Fold these 2 entries.
Entry 1:
Amino acid sequence: MLLDPRDSLGDRVRGRLAVAGPTAFSAYCIGAAFATYFCMYAFRKPFTAAEYDDGVLWGVGYKSVFVAAQVAGYTLSKFIGIKVIAEMPRGRRAVSILALIGVAEASLVGFALVPPPYNFPFLFVNGLPLGMVFGLVLSFLEGRRLTEALAAGLCASFIVSSGVVKSVGRWLVVDWGVDEYWMPSLAGLLFVPPLAAAVGMLSLIPPPGADDIAQRQERAPMTRAQRWAFFRRHAVGLTALIGIFVALTVLRSLRDDFAVEIWQGLGYGAAPSVFARSETLVMVGVIVISGAAVLVGDNRRALVISLGLVAAGFALVLVSLAAQTQGALGPFWFMVLIGMGAYVPYVAFHTTVFERLIALSDQRANLGYVMYLADSSGYLAYVAVMFAKGRIAGEAGFLTLFTTLAWWIAVACLALSVVLIAFYARKYRDAPAPLAGLAAERA
């Protein structure tokens, strides 16, 4: 394909991507999506690397209040996103990402300027826009034959980036003496230039082609009536899937937000490098496993296999807990293995479970709608856990809270995963051609 030299650089990139092979196309899309969401984490997570042990509000330590405030904003954002992400036109996605993150950075400056404890509302405001960024980024990648590989690359960002940006936060506080309250906004500013470049790359990704649509269904904005119709049609299985996702959100969020306290409870300390090292190992294992689903062309088989991965992840959590209890697993590898056990199912939902469920349907749908149904429920449950911590683990620390919940979650969700494997294997045993129903709906 010859490109007109008078075309803009953006037009040239779009033209190249339109005719690129799967390897080059995947590399570009993964790089753009990974970098965008990686940078977003620099505006969300660095504050959790600080201890904020200088006060108590309403009988609760500052850090717990700060985490709960941000998660509350993030949770509300997920509920708003059910409508906003499902209805967002393609042309407004990139500018929306930049605007949302701009609001988040401004709130971090307010968090530093206003003295504690009166600054906690700024973290609520910080979480409010950031909860919609993932859905906007994912919407550039869904509905393609390569979606699992692309989404796995995106998910790598939220596995490794959390550890890296917390390492940056600890580095600013420990090595540079930056005040704990100014550290989050400074960490965010460091990532503004790469964020702008990454969003620019993301905006140039072309929409899915005809072959993608033929295999994975066309993805388009959904009206309220279409959202309700999809939910009613899939209510039984979708409710169970969301239940598992809720449990996973609680488990991985506890491990993520209170990593400093969990590492300390394990007797390992919280050196800045430990977050990046442990999460990088988790990322490599999880992404290789999840991305491999792109090799399975049949949507029914891919859905069943992905649910098998969900079950396997919970089994690994149980094995890790048992080994740690018996003293057979050291702190570092306990955090790595239990992280992998939590993230394999969590990432499988983002890359394959919901993607293939939509591909098997004959209804108008998009991944953002289903993901935000699950995400909003998950973060609401996490906020509830934050407020119920005392009843769950008494006066014990976050390590006890984390391991207690991990036991219950792994046992219950492993059983439910097995039931869902049988349910979907039977439900879609004679699945029709994916476009038949949609074509009839349009006619």
Entry 2:
Amino acid sequence: MWYALHFPTLVTRPDDQVTTSSAISLIAQHCQQISDYISLDGDDALVLEVGRSLNYFGSLARIRTRIESGIAAQGIHIDFFQAVTPNASASLLLARTGHNVAFGKPEDLRSRLGGIPTSALAIDIRICKKLAKCGLFYLRDIWRLPLPELRIRFGRHFSDYIEQCLGLRAEMRIPWQARPDYHDRYDAEHGLCSVQQILYACEQLLHRLEAFLKQNHLCTDELVFTMDYASAGEAQNCERVSVNIRKADRAAALFLLLLETRLSDMHFCGEVYAINLRVTQFTDFRPAGGFQHRKQTQKEGVNSQLLDTLAARLGSNAVQRLLIRQDYCPEFSTLMAPYLAPLTEDKADAWHSSLSVSQNPCWLLAPPHPLSIRNQQLHYLSPLTLLRGPRRIETRWWQDEAVRRDYYVAANAQGNLLWIYQDLARKTETERRGTDWYLHGFFG
């Protein structure tokens, strides 16, 4: 039995400043007292499985009373429709069309849904228009057609949706889970004066956090400590200390090490009497699998811990990381980003091309260095000998400064292995410049 709730309007109290999405989350959180399987359908509807809850509550009337009292207790003033049927899609469809009904027989689905217009179905608007052109304005019109013909004419998704509404096809809905929000507090019996005393108190908080993360199979990459302190004759103050790591973890020892690094450069003008720990960002814990993967993960963990410590000591912007992105122009194929800064979608799309890794040097000059020609031979510290090339790169032709180059690998008498190119781009055919050859990088 699936109990659907649809809220056409969500009006909350102005002083609460509760958004629509948070309001539906509050309602879903209350419904967890009734069912352990809740699924949201947008920001204005949800459905919960109540078949296993009937034995406990006794009847649907008691469940409805419990839901209405919980909504009122949240201080959210809403008008809602509710429907209970043997499947979730039918319940949501009835509730969204303003029907307050409850029935438990699957054979009643056709008659109960027959009067619903096809324009109210949760399908693509183009399919709705196509149904109207075919004269199918109500679901009772669709019942007259064989389901295999519906699949051919209107597509597989529409046919599957109709079968789900009729209870002929099982459906899996994504269960809703409340967003975790962890908060803990340490109250000192006596004022904490030294960093070691503060770390001892924080260690207790971190061990309790680690137990919470392990119990819920979670990790986090950001911890926020708020330390309340006061000195004689002065008002109470608070200091906010954030601990960030690039790769989410749940080890209390790592968090304590980073916190000690942060506190070593801080000075409190009084005794700390309370410490608050707040964690709001969580990710699922994924254990390492296999011996080789576990060994690689341990090696990456050591490097990550070192970089996290440097970032905590020097600041996020002081520790940079090299990213590779998809661009044929060499000077735009790499970029530097702060170590702890979250990656945007374009930066996260790293492009590891075997061609660029094997043939392009890592050390590039910005800007490229012009090469001189002496006795009709390229010269850098000594005459250059071309070893490999040309390799043409032609891109960014849609911009004002197009890139059209022939790249070569060259060597000089000093033993340097150089990456040079001849610039073939011209703004005009008659343009002449001092040199067309440039040194762009060095091979290791």
